[in-house]
């Protein structure tokens, strides 16, 4: 009994000490900040603006998270190398899970995050955005495209197109380019918010533009493997353009089955199609002639894209996808806004949040990035930019006019 | 209208013959060992991965890939039986069932560790292309022809094997009464091992044909077709070899017709509703034999 008491006393003492040590630690970590703000900015590595990042680094959506992390890190390294404002990126894994994303957000808060870059995927982003709204963190997502992310929250901004925006833009593009096809079939996943969101907006805009939709079929989940009925319906109704606002895994099956059927319309996809060329073992000749709207063409010939692709390949040994480009643009947008608003490393996250919100929504703030020139933001957090429409030729994207 | 119907019928038979090959494996094992091998669907997935790497990464010809997949799956099936099921030979059937589900998860997670979760695109072992009928209005792809042909050949071979060979007769004897078979000098353990070997080799063929038709390969690729094929086996009368073929093809045709004429959302519900109706009318399945339990 006595021994127990001694033990518990010792434990309490140890806890108290560690608690004090914790306090001391955070104090010492905090003290340099005000000190260094007196010194010229950018001279010491301690005075960095802390950007927290969240996305899936493991699990089934890891492709997206890893790309957004790598693209963003590349941008941070470039900006820091130039001098001026210095940034630090701390990227946490959420496994595309809303609960884990909230844990990651708590970890980042403890770390002293001032700006949140993320989340990468929609569901975690919606969950985290309601916390950042309440806690007053500025948030810019590279790729969570649902309007649920930004609606009703003045602090959440997107660098990607929203789903409805993609749908109506696609319909406009097809209306302006009748050579792609005039009789349209839509195949979409009606168990998925992304796919349904685009398809709904596409249908409305297609009707407004007088496009002829001859077939509309759905499938229930991305695990679906048989598309013979959907393709058969499109073919028997004489569709010469198949609009597929879906992810690349089912799309690769559709392309394969269409070829086996001897059905060769123009296939038109959205940004979820990006990644189809990277599927291991995929016969890329199947994708020849596939038209898709994406935010970024890694084989683009403009200087910005070419340089980005080159340094990304040097650093990570793979071709960047649009998620990497979105991440890269996010960091540059945050950096430009911090510069313009005069954000410094010692500001509290609430102050940074207010400063960045007013900068992003200011009419004279625009960013030229990989994923669009002259990007501007409205008060609803949605970006305004023109999409890049590309056509697949010999396993590469060729930008279309 | 008629053309659409014919096209759907062909697609249904194509899907159904894949279910049938998987169902043959289920039914063999159930008929002889009296256990539901829920890991069968995952053996299919392993077979497909083996063929994928053999033909893709090592550039072996498709035939070698299929044979290699059959060898690996046969060994895997026998090892699973030896390690997981044999010690439970005298245990209640529920324990064996749970073990089979455990093996199924084990295989899926092993595949996840070894090969990752990214879907891989399977290169068909059959050349892509199709035969045109009725002046090009209907097309039947080569892979469909091969699948249907393989399915029929396997069914005939299995029927001949269980009817005429010594091992086949031993299998039937075990399925009727293990104790009596043992008294007659049949090595029951060896016979059951052989059943698993044959079932797993069939799983490898099924895996390759499944992924040749629907070329996405993931660790969970085998699970849904496995469940559907199990349904097909029950539908046709579990334990009956022609029943598995009939059940598989009917299931595939019903699924595709359900999609085409009722709803793409409800096709699975339609399939299982038909199953329930059949089992209400004929509890042993379409071709199942009624075996009275002796006490």
From TrEMBL, chain A:
Q: In what residue span(s) does the Leucine-binding protein domain sit? A: 48-393
Q: Which UniProt keywords apply?
A: Amino-acid transport, Signal, Transport
> Any keyword DNA-binding?
no
Note whether Signal occurs among the keywords: yes
Pfam families reported for this sequence: Peripla_BP_6
Q: Which InterPro entries match?
A: BCAA_transport (IPR051010), Leu-bd (IPR028081), Leu_Ile_Val-bd (IPR000709), Peripla_BP_I (IPR028082)
| Signal peptide limits | 1-21
Specify the superkingdom. Bacteria
Query: Gene3D superfamilies, alphabetically?
Result: 3.40.50.2300
UniProt cross-references to PROSITE patterns, sorted A to Z: PROKAR_LIPOPROTEIN
- Please report which protein family the annotation says this sequence is part of: Belongs to the leucine-binding protein family.
Q: What is the protein's given name?
A: ABC transporter substrate-binding protein
Phylogenetic classification of the source organism: Bacteria, Bacillati, Bacillota, Clostridia, Eubacteriales
